[in-house]
Write a structure and sequence with these properties.
It is a single chain. This protein is mostly helical. The protein has five helices and no strands. Helix 3 (58-82) runs antiparallel to helix 5. The chain is flat and about 65 Å long. The chain crosses the membrane at residues 6-29, 60-81, 87-110. It catalyses: a quinone + NADH + 5 H(+)(in) = a quinol + NAD(+) + 4 H(+)(out). Keywords: Cell membrane, Membrane, NAD, Oxidoreductase, Quinone, Translocase, Transmembrane, Transmembrane helix, Transport, Ubiquinone.
Length: 125
Amino acid sequence: MLNNYLPIIILGGIAIVLAILLMSLSRLLGPFRPNTNKLNPYESGMDPVGEARDRYSISFYLVAMEFIVFDLEVVFIYPWAVRYLDYGLGTLVAMIIFIVTLFIGLLYTVKVGTLDWDAKQGMFN
């Protein structure tokens, strides 16, 4: 049983040893001259604005969750679409129910105003 995972364990061990070795060599051989500019936080080439622990609107997280849900939808639909002819009518009905359920969820979030960032009155704003 464990023999099946032995190559993965060996590969993981080699990756860890190689990462530690390369970081140690970089630290030993490379220049290390810290100063205040190098130790400042860095955000995509821009100076950081505000605190890192600022609060975000709940709409931001709801949109992110919807994005993940629709990404997962693609993960389920694409393999089904590739093998659609092999599975038959039962999987078609299941997929239609799945898509309709997601569509109802999307309609609900649109109705609540999750996607409308300018709305002043909404359930989650």
